[in-house]
Amino acid sequence: MEETLRWIFPAEMQKVFETVCLQQSKISEIRLRAMRPILIRRSGEEWFVEENGRLTKSPDPAAKISVKQLQTILDRACQNSPYAYEEELKNGFLTIRGGHRIGVTGQVVAEGEKKIRTQKYITGLNIRVAHEVSTAADDVLSQIYRKGQVLSVLILSPPGCGKTTFLRALIRRVSDGNPYGGGKNVGVVDERSEIAGAYQGEFAYDLGMRTDVLDACPKQAGISLLLRSMSPEVIAVDEIGEQGDYELLRKLSTCGCKLFATAHGDSLQDILRKFMLTKQELGAVFDRVVLLEKRDGKCQVKAVEALEDEACI
After folding, report:
1. Domain count, the chain
2. Which of the residue ranges 59-68, 84-93, 191-200, 265-274 would you say has the lowest mean pLDDT?
């Protein structure tokens, strides 16, 4: 398992990251900033990494990483072909083998005032370590079905509380079928290559036997393509963040498809304010809102709210 990350670190850094790679199953993030201590998030806690690979709570003995080493790690992640990843880098991240996602900061090369072409002179990398939790949605399955039919679900939480992990698990259980309903054809528009963890046509995650994935595809174009060609019964997207995303899904909800989507927010009221909607307007698109939280370092379901006049939990 650890080898899915070890390969991106240059030879001179193998000792520093040996322990990190061996504990990959417990680590969610590796933060690398130029000439700053190396940080990791392990089991919900922040740790520093020493030169010998040991973890410490103090930044004083922690190893630091140079600008040259950051660039080397990024080059290895891009398989020494950064131009092949230019489209991903302009969005600030790339997905590597194993489904791990690397966020990138540096000097932006812009085209005009709003369009980013790429980044250079890298100063920071955030390696988000991929984990598959196939049972994450099991406890709420009974609440997102009605008379054997799956409902449309919005998954809501603050950053880092497992929205995408929960979405993956939900897709798989609905695609394969479960005690509450038979298997459904699910179409996934994976705009940021994060839901399936796709790398050169291979998926890091099991999304079920009846799931079709459009990788690195814009939402609107992907939804249109799926409707034309794959006859989905459910369409899933990650991170709706703009009014235009909501309007797109509102129109889609009239096509007979059920919807799964995620969004950043601390509460149902938070998302209603963000999109300037009433509960009834949101309920025209989604039947259930699943609220996630992090408690004692673990991501879990806080509540499931019905968007119609019936109690859920």
Report:
1. 2
2. 84-93
Domain match, 103 and 190 both: no
Bridge partners of 264? Answer: 157
Range of the domain at 285: 138-306
Q: Which residues of 140-161 are buried (b: 16+ CB within 10 A; e: fewer)?
A: bbebbbeeeebbbbbbbbeeeb
pLDDT above 60: residue 311: no
- Give the model confidence (pLDDT) of 209-256 as tens digits: 999 999 989 899 999 999 999 999 999 999 888 777 888 888 888 888
- Characterize the bridge pairing of strands 93-95 and 234-237: unpaired
Chain centroid to CA 273: 23
The Cα–Cα gap between 8 and 193 comes to 19
83 and 224 both lie in a single domain: no
Residues 171, 211 contacting (CB under 8 angstroms): yes
d(CA 169, CA 311): 24
d(CA 308, CA 125): 43
Instruction: Verify that 122 and 147 share a domain, yes or no.
Output: no
Positive/negative CA dihedral, 136, 139, 142, 148: positive
Considering the entire predicted model, what is its pTM? 0.80
Q: DSSP per residue over 57-108, as a string?
A: S-STTB-BB-HHHHHHHHHHHTTT-GGGGHHHHTTTEEE-TTS-EEEEEEEE
